[in-house]
Amino acid sequence: MPKTTKAAATTTRTAKKTTGPAEKGLTVERVFTTAGVHPYDEVEWEQRDVVMTNWRDGSINFEQRGVEFPEFWSQNATQIVTSKYFRGALGTPQRETGLKQVIDRVVHAYHVAGEKHGYFATAEDAQVFADELTWLLLHQYFSFNSPVWFNVGTAAPQQVSACFILSVDDTMESILDWYKEEGMIFKGGSGAGVNLSKIRASAELLSSGGNASGPISFMRGADASAGTIKSGGATRRAAKMVVLDVDHPDIEAFIDTKAREEDKIRALRDAGFDVDLGGEDMFSVQYQNANNSVRVSDVFMKAVEEGTDYALTARQTGAEIERRDARAVFRRMAQAAWECADPGIQYDDIINDWHTNPNTDRIYASNPCSEYMSLDDSSCNLASLNLMKFLGDDGSFDVDRFTKAVEFVITAMEISISFADFPTEKIGETTRDYRQLGIGYSNLGALLMTSGYAYDSDEGRALAAAITALMTGVSYRRSAEIAGAVGPYAGYERNAEPHQRVMAKHAAAADAVETFGDVDATVLEAAKAEWAKGNEIGAVNGWRNAQASVLAPTGTISFMMDSDTTGIEPDLALVKHKKLVGGGSMEIVNQSIPRALTRLGYNADDRQAIVDYVAEHGHVVGAPALREEHYPVFDCAMGERAIAPMGHVLMMAAVQPFLSGAISKTVNLPESATVEDIEEVYFQGWKLGLKALAIYRDNCKVGQPLSAKKKEIDKAVEEAVEQAVETIAVHGPVRRKLPKKRPSQTISFSVGGAEGYMTSSSYPDDGLGEVFLKMSKQGSTLAGVMDALSVSISIALQYGVPLEKYVEKFTNMRFEPAGMTDDPDIRMASSVVDYIFRRLALDYLPYEERAAIGILTTAERTAELNGEDPAKVSQPEVDLDALRASAPIEEAVAERVQIESKPSRLDILTSAQARSADAPLCMNCGTKMRPAGSCYACEGCGATSGCS
């Protein structure tokens, strides 16, 4: 494990020149390494097997045995790096076999380029830099973005940037170039964003006299292209952002695009089409490969605030076409976001007020996750630091080591631009001229909890602001020092005044932060010193980079660093699943909890009691010995005590003034949130000075919006229920008991590592009549609850409640334990109850009823994929006559009640199949993905829905 070493300064020998290369480069002194000792020799290594299976059928979709990793790396990180970042064809001598090869491949490229382009004073300085970089990567202190691991040091083009911004003009040639450029970016494993506001609206005229197609029509082609490249086996799914200005005449149609498509998805699903994630029929749905955002101006937001109208303007002439009620358009945005989470919002004037290069051009768009905002036809190389590595056992934050780590990382990122390849010459030229970087961090949520601070608290926000200010301050100070060694960025001279103005704004924002304790005060004082020093050096040298920092979602690379939380996000839940080296997984309580309890002053016995309580309940409410005033420390993004939406917004507002770019983060809202709640979040984002904001309302992707259609369905369902109740009232409930001897089966199962047994008994003349469930130890709370559930279900079945009603109500119910199962027909379950009723449906319901609610066996799903009739899949034959003979029905059984109302399509429309968890299942391994910014990332295999 890492050992503490002296903190040594990293300095420059020359800091005078403002243009052209310097005569001498940087000198580098050791901070983390020891002279004469290679970083690899300081750790223990071990051989591991990586075997990953397909969740649909249990087949192996990746296997590499005998890979070499440090013993302190988790199995999860091992799997992700091996399956995603090892280069070379499997089974060939060229295939990488251990972490050493991966790190050496990347670090060697940086080492060589740094020497070649004059970044270091001597060869010895370059070697020290390489050693330090190796140590930081080996010990998971930081990680480059995924394209670096994919491409650097290989025969492939050296694309190092994860984020791209493109441009589109109002010509067919430009639009076709946009399609091509996006495709090349997706092929390299990255994402791109574009603003379509220059394209004429559908109401405007062409030179030929006809009406223009409008930007939305061209979005269809780009979306189809992205979907094709994604499905063609690219390294990751395509990711893209589409932006439209709020004064564009087609803005209302743009706002509605994805909400309308969600209606289509529901209709297709209810008609029996496969619209699951990656489903073959999903390709008929449009606009699903992009995040959409509306770019709003201060003029528009003030009109919303005052209740006035604003102008929609022609694209060619800028003339006013018509006026719209600002509040009506704002409500429409919130309504669409309520229905499907799109569009997000970007605040144009705030973005451009913090822009260092306005004399070159404005900022029009962002990357797919909204953290990178810069010039059109540009790119950004990302890297993220693991904040937990700098937290001391006493709750202190190691400012010195953090400062040195930032210096090394920002230097490496700058070097990468000197050897990087780019998908187009335009992008390459802009990036080399402005040299945009995006240093950021992960594990903020874990850091705050471990430190005993609530995420939604003034203390937590102050520490986050101080750390962010220090990170960006050091980055720009280092950038100014590098400018002294190799010159400022080419576009600096024409933007010197606005660049210095923005640097002064950052420094002034640091002066305005209020601190609440020794830790945040110490970090903030260091940050202020860095800004003062950096601005002093920059006034002489200029800066090497137009942009230095962003907060990216850090999906895959967070798992590579074994981070508990991604980016700026809080913890998702207090209990998680940990993969084991030998296979399988176990449920563990987050390690942040015992450390937080220690920090809050609880003794060993109380800590253990609280941890045991969390392990059983998944939350801290009612935990023994835990004081209620400490509950907020353990609030998470989801669960019993979810962080309030404005808690997310306020955290973003606390760190935004200390970032060159913006923040990739989704503000989570409960399913019960209203359109007005979303309006308030969007409005407060503007008031608090954010650059961009995205929301997600729990289950909004599949929840039926409040509409006349839903009201009709609800009314029809209500009438059907009333009819059924009246029928039962007339006949009276009659219980039909099972005979003394009845056919039954016992199944052992495992859900998320929790094991149990289910015995189900049926009437000899068909039909389930009894269920027994066994989990946990005799006398435990869980065992008692399962016994009570078994009795209640059994009695209800014997009184005639149809099994399909239970299946509709209980499938997709979410609570722990949840996750992978050992059942080949049900690979994933959102809870034990979800698994039980899926299994009962498969065993006791006919194919037609199961198909209507989407519960099929593996064989039936395979038949569907092969174009065969799943209804004809052979089932084991049962000798009913023999069963009847073995258990004759008692003569005294009362007449069975006939319920006249069978489940209808109306029931199916509101069944459990019409609901699902908010996060999708991973297409590769079936693990439930977790939010990472405005995207999703898989902890099981590292796959993402588009994040870097």
UniProtKB/TrEMBL annotation:
Reactions catalysed according to its record: a 2'-deoxyribonucleoside 5'-diphosphate + [thioredoxin]-disulfide + H2O = a ribonucleoside 5'-diphosphate + [thioredoxin]-dithiol
InterPro entries, alphabetized: RdRp_reductase_class-2, RNR_2_N, RNR_lg_C, RNR_NrdJ/NrdZ, TSCPD_dom
GO molecular function: cobalamin binding; cobalt ion binding; nucleotide binding; ribonucleoside-diphosphate reductase activity, thioredoxin disulfide as acceptor
GO biological process, alphabetically ordered: DNA biosynthetic process
Residue ranges annotated for the TSCPD domain, each copy included: 740-843
EC number per UniProt: 1.17.4.1
Domain Ribonucleotide reductase class II vitamin B12-dependent N-terminal: 50-140
Record's keyword annotation contains Oxidoreductase: yes
Compositionally biased spans, kind Low complexity: 1-19
Cofactor(s), names only, from the UniProt record: adenosylcob(III)alamin
Stretches the record annotates as Disordered: 1-23
Short name of one Pfam family: Ribonuc_red_lgC
Coiled-coil regions, chain positions: none
Record keywords, A-Z: Cobalamin, Cobalt, Disulfide bond, DNA synthesis, Nucleotide-binding, Oxidoreductase
Domain Ribonucleotide reductase large subunit C-terminal: 161-696
EC class (word): oxidoreductase
Family (UniProt): Belongs to the ribonucleoside diphosphate reductase class-2 family.
Function field: Catalyzes the reduction of ribonucleotides to deoxyribonucleotides. May function to provide a pool of deoxyribonucleotide precursors for DNA repair during oxygen limitation and/or for immediate growth after restoration of oxygen.
The name this protein goes by in its record: Vitamin B12-dependent ribonucleotide reductase
UniProt source species: Glycomyces artemisiae
